[in-house]
Amino acid sequence: MKPHLLIGLSTRAMAESAVKSNPDVLTLDFFGDQDQKNLTSNFSLAREFQLPFSAENLLKASNGLLFDTVSYTSNLENHPEVVAALAERATLAGNGAETIRSIRDWSVLREFCRESSIPCPATLLPGEEGQVSAIDKWLCKPVDGGGGSNVQFWDGNALDERSILQMYMEGIPASAAFVADGKKGVVLGLTRQLIGLSEFGVSGHAWCGNILPLPLKAGNHSPLLTEVGNILNKLIERFGLQGVGGMDFILSKGKNGKMRPFLIEINPRYTGSMELIERAYGLNLYTMHLDACDGRLPAFNLSEHINGNYYGKGIVFARNELTIKSTKDWSAMGRKDIPFPGDEIKPGQPICTLFSTADTHDACLKNLFINADNIRKEIGDVGRGE
Fold it and tell me: In terms of pTM, does the model score above 0.90?
């Protein structure tokens, strides 16, 4: 048997899940961090191939590897041609090219949302800028973006063919992780998305982590979970989604004044919040992913697991140009995505991933901030790096 290949921008979290049930795992990503190379066989665009990140470079680098099953993570959902090429070489565990091509196409998705009464922000395509309502704020987003990169308030200029406009909504940025068998799905977790927090070295709309569970007032989890489940089952049935995936949404006030989930996008692959779900609920998401692709869904009821501790994940980004020195104790301190001593990190690039557990949301977030501050002092990443 040949190994399972995990491929994407960063595969460490998915690999940690996969090796628990399938030790014959091969990974190909951009970073090739120290803890992943200690975990399983890893090839890195940056280290072994000296190539910049792109889906096309991942495909090119995979040509020399042997594998019989392939699963992908960010941002291959934006590159159906690469997914199709991988599927020609091995069994694809996950959503195929046609599925991701349609669910990531806002001309298709917004029409289905309208027909199915799925709440989502008004979304405009190139050539539709004249429909902008002057009283609202609008975000300009790349259709092939990820992690909030290059998302900014619209400046009034015409859109290029790879951008959309989405009406800005006040609310809590959130995500729902799910697993699907092509017909129906199971919600595995609801998280708050950490967006644009300067404590982690980002600004604007950049994603920098998650906190599980989504902090809500008492009694609000059940109706939200029901509505999220209904939305997801409509999407899964229409687009045939398989395996694990994520739905980004804004929890905002609807017309009746009640808080509702407004769909932002579907990420039809393993997502950044999923390792928190494994930590909190004792699940193995890679096994669930493979099972669901074979038509088997887990007997899991999220409503039975909502009450408990909060679990946080924060990605720390460099404010200044750095050269990493010793990382000897980083793993023992619970840090992940650990660079090698001697690695050079430029401003805006990730340093590592930190975790926190606490009995309240605010304490969990505060612990993440403290941990981020500690690592900056340790490696000399002080100041704003202006």
Answer: yes
